[in-house]
Structure formats: C-alpha cells, structure tokens
Amino acid sequence: MTAGSVELEARLREPRDHSARGAAVLCHPHPLYGGDMNNRVVFRAARAAVQAGFAALRFNFRGVGASTGSYDQGRGEKDDVRAALAFLRSRYIGVPLALAGFSFGSWVGLQVGCEDPAVSALIGMGLPLSQYDFAFLRLNPKPTLLIAGSLDGFCPQELLTPFSRELPASTTVRVIHEADHFFGGQLELLQGLVADFLADRALKVQRG
User: Fold this and answer.
1) Does 203 score more than 90 pLDDT?
2) Residues 30, 33, 38, CA angle at the centre, nearest 5°?
C-alpha cells in the first residue's frame, strides 16, 4: 500500500466467510512513543470490526515498522490514512467504510474521516484532549463513538465532560470506569463497544 512515495506496511483481516458487510481502517498511537499497528487497543478494535462483519485494515504510519518515510507531525500521516481508505474503497465496493483511531491515531484519523464523504462511521479511543485540538468534532455530523477511560490522564474527565456537551447528537461518548489510557483490564469491554457500534451501523446502512 502506498501513500505517494511512501510504502506502508499493513495487515488486512476479513470475516471468516470473506463476505464483508463493511470495511474499517484502524490508526495506531504515536509513532515516537512506541505506537504501531500491533498495539493492543488497535488489535482489539480490529478484532471487534471483524466480529461485526467488517474487514479490518491495520497499518503502520510512515517511519514505523516496515513502512518507509519518517514521522511528519501528523501531516504526512493524514496521507497515510487517506491511502488506507483508498485501498479499502477499491477492494470493498458498495459497503460502508469506518475509521477508528487510538490516541494520536484518533487525532490524525478522525480528521481525515470527517473530511472523507465515503466514511460513514467514526470511532475515537483514548482521545488525547490534553495534547491535541479536537474542535473539528464539534461540527461532525457522522455517527461517531468516542471511548475513554475514567482514569485516562491524556483524556481527563475535567476536559472530556465539557467537550462532550459541545458535540452533536450523532456522537456517543462512553466512559469505561477504572480504565486508564490503554484500557488495561478493560479491553474486552472496549472490544464489545466497538463491535456493537459497527454492527449497528452496518445494519442501518443496509436497511437505509
């Protein structure tokens, strides 16, 4: 998979019957702090997508793992997300596309997902509200699920609570009690929330 001159390492997982009801891109946390597509939160979100009948595409941002290029402070990484979406769009024609991101991956990925008319559902996990500006979500009309841990230092409740009040009705915010930024000990619950959201979204698209 390529993003301009950058070659991106990626892994695609499909439902067992190879009949995808949708396709999802998963974006990993910060490249400079050990983030890659094998991150546990990203892996569980991908598993949830497959559980919901979606094909799940995890990939390494530029400069991570076998991906070429180098870290670009979120600018080039947006092109990486666009390349991943283009790959799914060409492979799975006529099914809903979703985008999910964790931490830094939520900041980069959700911006692209909001802009791309082909993306019909968004998921943000562990939004680092203390580090990045997520104001763009205030005008986002797409069905969106935001998941945070009550003990997440990068998404503290004193920031999440007022921010949640400013979001449109299309956005659902779920706080997992006693979970930290990495959802330690709560990954099963996170996986279930993501799977239920995507399954519901796929059904609505098929019915609509």
Assistant:
1) no
2) 70
